[in-house]
Write a structure and sequence with these properties.
alpha/beta; six-stranded mixed β-sheet; four-stranded antiparallel β-sheet; binds adenosine-5'-triphosphate
């Protein structure tokens, strides 16, 4: 269970998040919507400890998430994707996914400890797990290909695979449909639905593609100028006058 309460983030004179509160129950798929600059990515950056909150609390499975060191977020079962993709272009697809897997491996894993037999066994296990993910996400054929030069839809799937390699319980997706064709959006929605079941994921997805959000999410939270203006089922939020005025009218 994720419980966000009174979360406030300021950048100089800008209040990017203004006392935002909501809860996400295990297994929920929650859409986070709102106009550009509403604070959606800032919220993800707070949950992953990239940004410091000025006020408020975030509890994840009862723990105080805002007290967790940024590098320990993955160990708390939280992984994310990025709006502008965070892949290493020169690394192979498999190695990009392994970067995600190593984040949950033992500290010092990438050091000289690689010479130890026990660590080599773990490396083999991680590689097998990465290969299984590549298979599942239809990436096996490009596993040895550098990420650079692959089609955008493929890069999006690689980023998802990398996040999943960290074995998250809470997956934060930042605009996964941005740049995808209609057909790719439908495929991605089907994939995400299936992965959510298979991997018992709780998901928060920031997305401007309303067909996707309303079709796949159980709940939708809408931000405007850093404040929460709606929180309900897709139908409730779609029919909410404040949301229509602030966002959907223009979406
Ligand atoms: P979009 O849909 O365009 O991605 P968003 O809802 O994700 O927008 P944020 O990126 O969270 O919005 O930005 C919220 C506000 O905080 C904006 O006014 C933005 O300029 C500001 N902001 C975000 N990050 C920083 C930062 N590191 N320094 C200063 N201001 C920032």
């Amino acid at each position: 269970m994720l419980e966000v309460s009174g979360l406030t983030v300021r950048f100089g004179g800008i209040t990017a998040l203004d006392h935002v509160g909501f809860t996400v129950r295990p297994g929920d798929m929650v859409g986070l919507i709102g106009p550009n600059g509403a604070g959606k990515t800032t919220l993800f950056n707070c949950l992953t400890r990239r940004y410091q909150a000025d006020e408020g609390t975030v509890r994840w499975d009862g723990a105080d998430l805002l007290a967790v060191a940024p590098h320990a977020i993955v160990a708390m079962g939280i992984a994310r994707t990025f709006q502008n993709l965070g892949l290493f272009p020169e690394l192979s697809v498999r190695d990009n996914v392994l970067v995600g897997a190593h984040r949950h491996a033992k500290a010092g894993f990438l050091s000289a400890a690689l010479r130890l037999p026990s660590v080599r066994r773990e490396e083999a296990a991680l590689r097998a797990e990465a290969d299984a993910l590549l298979d599942r996400l239809d990436l096996a054929a490009v596993a040895d290909h550098p990420a650079a030069g692959l089609p955008f839809g493929t890069l999006k799937r690689i980023e998802l695979a990398r996040a999943l390699a960290a074995r998250p319980r809470l997956l934060l997706l930042d605009e996964p449909c941005n740049g995808l064709s209609h057909g790719e959006v439908d495929e991605f929605a089907a994939l995400l639905r299936a992965l959510r079941e298979e991997r018992e994921l709780t998901v928060i997805v920031v997305e401007h593609h309303m067909g996707f959000v309303m079709g796949i999410c159980d709940r939708v939270v809408c931000l405007e100028f850093g404040s929460k203006i709606a929180d309900g089922t897709p139908a409730e939020v779609q029919n909410d006058q404040a949301v229509r005025d602030a966002y959907l009218g223009a979406a």
